[in-house]
Each structure stands twice: as C-alpha cells, then as structure tokens.
Amino acid sequence: DSVVQQQCCNCISDLLRNDHTGELSLEVVRFVTRLLKTRSYAVEPCVLDVFLSLNIREISPIEEKKLEKASKPDYRSQKLSRRDRRQHKEKQELTKLLENKTLANRQEHRLKLNRQIIELIFLNYFRLLKRRLNLRLMPSVCEGLAKFANLINIEYMDDLITCFYDELSSEQTGLNQRAKFHCLITVFSILNRQQVLIHIDPQRFYALFYSLLLPCPSDMDIDLVIKLIQLMLIDRYKQLSKNKLLAFIKRLLTMILHLQLNKSISAVLVMIKALLTISTLVTEQLFDNEFSGSGIKYLWELNDPEYCHAQNATLYELVLLRTTSDKHIRQQCEEILSGKFQLDTHVLRSCQENALAYLQLTDNNQQSEK
Fold first, then answer.
1. Confidence at residue 196, expressed as pLDDT on a 0 to 100 scale
2. Which residues lie below 8 Å from residue 136, measured CB to CB, with a gap of 6+?
3. Cα gap 183→185, rounded to integer Å
4. Which of 146, 169, 238, 361 has the least CB density, counted as fewest CB within 10 Å?
5. Phi first, then psi: what are they for 328, rounded to 5°?
6. DSSP characters for 173-218?
7. What is the pTM of this model?
8. pLDDT of residue 293
C-alpha cells in the first residue's frame, strides 16, 4: 500500500533527522542500502528520499592516523601482585573510557560515522546514475547529490560532471525539469569549490541552463532558479562575458511574464536587479530603444546566450510589469527603471537571501499588502 509505504518513509526520515550521535543513522543507511541492492533498485522514490533528511555538513578526512600499538606493561619488573595487576588494569580501562567520552573524541567519532554514511549514500547515487537502473529514481539522485555536493570526493568529480552533461543533453533522459536544476546546482557547487583543482569548461552548462528558462519553469522550482543564478552568474560574475550577462537578464525577464505567483516574480526581480549592478555600463544598453548594436535582431528562440544578440533587445517587460496589481512588483519595476538600486552596495551581497525571503511569503500576506 502506497500510504503505508509513505508513512514508513516519513518515520525513517524523522529518525534520521533527530539522530544526534550518527550511529543509528549509519545502521539505517546500511539497511536501506541492503534493501536497494536486494530489490535491484526497483523501489519507489520515497525510499531514496529518506537520505535527504540527513544533516551532514562535515566528514573526516580520508587519511586517518594509524594508532600506535600499545605495549603491554611489564608487571614482573614492577613486582606487582595479582591483586595490584587487576587494579592497575581496571584503572587503565577506566581512564581509556573517560578519554573516549571527551568532546573532541566524540566529534572525531561522529565525523568518522559521517564519512561511512556518505560513502554508502554516494555508492547508491553513483550506481544509479551510471547504470540507469531505475529512471524514476533519477530526480531523487540529483537532489541528493545537490545537497551533499560539498562532500563529494575530488576523484569522482570529472566523471560525475561528464555523466551529468550526458544525462542533461540526452533526449531520452529520465530527469524532469526540477531534477535538471539539481544537476546544475551540483555541477556549479563543485566548480565553485574546486576552481583550482578541477579544469572543466562550464560554457556548455550555461547553455543548458539558458534553455531551461523557456518554457517557463513552475513556481515550485523558482527557489532552484534563484540558487542557480547565484551560483552560475553572481558568484562567477568575473568569468561572465558581456553577451552572456545581457542574454540571461533578458531571458529571465521574459520568463517571469509566465509565472503565476506574485512572490515568484518579486523573487526573480531581486536577482535581476543584482545582475544589472554587475556592469552598469554594459546593462544600460538594454534600456536604450535606439541602440542597434551589431544590427542583427535579438534571436529569442536561440538557446545560446553567447550568440542570441541580446545586446539588441530592450527590457519592455518592466513596462508591462509596472501595470500589475501587486504593490511590491510595481515598486521593484520603478526602482529598476529609475536606476536607484545602483547606489545600494548591498544588492549583490544579499540578493539570494532577499529573493528566498520573498518565496517564504504566504499568499495571505501578499493579499493583505496589496
């Protein structure tokens, strides 16, 4: 029964979420891994989703120091009686037990448990990703990898990124749009963390993200779009070309015309405002109706931000959004069109936080503030 199955998964998720020692989590992950292997991964996605309840942010390093073998005490040279030997041994065991109870040792033990848990989880994820054993589980795999991206070993990064690109560009992929966003989050979490150690051209992933913005994603996926704007565009603004910056601003504005919820529109406008502050001399072209650029019209249907000639486009969407009934959207559009936001030095720093705060608003709050 699907209801019973969901209740069991919810119970296990609560168990993992409330486990503070890690030992119970390790046993649960081992059990789930055995279950997946026994059933050849022919399970419902909710079974794999229980891993998302784990709150693991740090693991122990791979190279662990080997403990030196303790030498046995020489009782004969000390001329101790049998009773004294027993007392000495009990004292040593008690001292060792107290040492293991210290905070530092408990933290070290927890990090070791975290490493064992993460290794088992990644074993399942990579096996599903490479062998494509169950396409229904692919969205759960992508979401899990996006959550634990900062814990992925560098040895697997090249293969993982290549595998992601093949999956994203394949026509017979088992990924929905949300799962594709999770893939991109994983890729750029890796690239931003390991810029020196890993050398992969990210341009192909920019084109994939650009193509995913139209047709418009659902309002439920806007939180992932905001994270990707932060990871791909704002955090890497020094590597952004002029054409790419203009193209993403234009496409994001086109995208929000198709969104249903006002809070989603406001959230994306916050990120667009941050993008416009990256290079004001460049982005001013989008407000000029008479700017001709290269003389070639803007190719909105071309899914390549470098060659769609976005410099010849204009941001007419802001004029349309200015007529909406929502007060916040009208204020944001007026602020962008007037250019007042360019004087605020905190726009880039706090844009993601402010955008996600808009998404936390309930519909009732928005109705009362109109």
1. 47
2. 44, 45, 174
3. 5
4. 238
5. -65, -40
6. ----HHHHHHHHHHHHHHHHH-TTT-----HHHHHHHHHHTSSPPP
7. 0.82
8. 55
Apex 245 CA angle, 243 and 246, nearest 5: 65
Q: What is d(CA 309, CA 294) in angstroms, rounded to the nearest whole number?
A: 8
Q: Rounded to whole angstroms, how far apart are CA atoms 172 and 175? A: 9
Lookup: tokens for 185? 């989050």
CA-to-CA dists, residue 7 to 36, 51, 54, 162, 323, angstroms: 18, 15, 18, 36, 46
pLDDT in tens, 153-163: 877 788 888 88
Structure confidence at residue 91 (pLDDT): 86
**98 contacts: CB under 8 Å, gap ≥ 6:** none
d(CA 238, CA 244): 12
In terms of C-beta density within 10 A (0-12 exposed, 13-18 middle, 19 or more buried), how is residue 322 classed?
middle
Each domain of the chain, given as residue ranges in start order, spans 239-370
Position 67: which residue type? L
Question: d(Cα 275, Cα 243) in Å, to the nearest integer?
Answer: 13
Cβ–Cβ contacts within 10 Å for residue 346, how many?
A: 8
DSSP-assigned letter for residue 41: T
Place of tokens 């939180």: 223
Q: What are phi and psi of 257, to 5 degrees?
A: -65, -20
SS3 at position 327: helix
Non-local (6+) Cβ contacts of 15 within 8 A are: 24, 28
> Closest Cα to residue 203, out of 305, 120, 117, 296?
305
